[in-house]
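Ticket #287: bound-state structure for zinc ion.
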Amino acid sequence: MRAISPPQIGFSDVLTSCVGSIADQNLVNKINAVTPQLNLTASDFEVKVARADLFQLPAFTGDDSSIIVGQVTKGELKSLYSSHMVPAKKPARSYYDQLKMSAPLNICPYCGFGHVTTLDHYLAKANYPCFSVLAINLVPSCADCNKGKSSSLATTKGNQSLHPYFDHGHFVNEQWLYAEVEQQSSPPSIKFSAIPPTHWQDIDKERVKSHFKDFKLAARFKVQAATELAVLKGELEFYFQEQQAAGVAEALSRKHAAARGQHINWWKTALFHALAHDAWYCSVGFR
Ligand SMILES: [Zn+2]
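RESOLUTION: The complex was predicted; output attached.
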């Protein structure tokens, strides 16, 4: 997970912009009538997300025609996003673009390798329609993280995945991602695991593991590693010719240090560390 500074985009600014492009005056009136309630709900989200308490918010499971607040339905709240914030010509699209561009190097903060192509609702709009256009609920994301995220709702503090705008500090500065050579095959099979530091609070340990599981990172990192191993094969041969296994291990240690300098919990950091310390890989496995 990579940290992103929380967006400084107010809920009422986005809402006003979205409502401004609605042609149906009846719908405009209905939304205007509940705007104070929507503002309160957004404030509640802001308070809870900072404490990792979003799991306390009730999830809605009814269909799109169900009334959520005042006379406004779930479908109407969802369409604020899909019909008035996403389409290219709508004024609120500028907020969408601003959020989408907030990920450094356009890298998806959830997985740390995919390219940002969309915005992900941290709390899904299907279950939390009131937050469909709330900026701090909209996270730049790759398509796989957006679509592949586990659909199960977080019902405890521990099973909430990490939020890139708010879960900073030890979640990004302390190592919890590890790799190992799982099978001495050709090519080698790499296993990634989330192993949080023992001194962390149990809730934080659970959250990292939930994040790892929800975004299916073990399987997805494994695929990334397979591509990297193919690249390394040729490159490491050069170091092997020079200094055999010790040369390979040293080259991998340098790669590990460089990767770690960028992101401690990056799949490449974990991979290079595992490979540099695997005697079999450094002597024969890399081939
Ligand atoms: Zn991703």
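RESOLUTION NOTES: The mean pLDDT is 96.
TICKET STATUS: resolved
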